[in-house]
Every structure is written in structure tokens, then in C-alpha cells.
């Protein structure tokens, strides 16, 4: 399996956001990475929805 084809800057940002070591991220299967990104997006959306209710 070849490493993910992403830029170094993107790899560093994803590694920090997902809490995964950079080496693990680069060799992570693409379907696993997409799953983790979907989970992260759900969490972010949940935080934004929660913040909107407390602003009024």
C-alpha cells in the first residue's frame, strides 16, 4: 500500500486534528481516514449547533 497523496501541510494539520502520529496518518488506509474525518466533522457540527443555542 502506498502512502496517502496529500501535501505535507495537510498531513500535519490532519495529524494534529485527529491526534494521530504523522507516520501513522501517512500509512493509514484511505477508508479509515475518511471515516475519522467524518467523525471529526460530526463533532464539529455538534459543537456549532450547541453554540448557537447558548448565544441568545
Average pLDDT works out at 86
Q: Would you tell me the structural class of the helices and strands?
A: mainly alpha
Shape: elongated
Low-confidence stretches: none
Distance between the termini: 50 Å
Q: Could you explain the architecture of this structure?
A:
73% of the residues lie in helices and 0% in strands. The chain is an all-alpha fold and 56 residues long. The longest helix has 25 residues, at 30-54. The mean pLDDT is 86.
Main features:
single chain; about 55 residues; mainly alpha
Summarize the structure.
This protein has three helices and no strands. With 56 residues, it is mostly helical.
What is the strand and helix layout of this fold?
Elements lengths: L7 H11 L3 H5 L3 H25 L2
Amino acid at each position: 500500500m502506498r502512502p496517502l497523496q496529500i501535501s505535507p501541510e495537510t498531513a500535519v494539520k490532519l495529524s494534529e486534528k485527529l491526534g494521530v502520529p504523522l507516520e501513522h496518518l501517512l500509512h493509514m488506509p484511505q477508508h479509515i481516514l475518511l471515516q475519522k474525518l467524518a467523525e471529526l466533522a460530526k463533532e464539529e457540527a455538534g459543537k456549532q449547533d450547541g453554540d448557537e443555542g447558548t448565544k441568545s
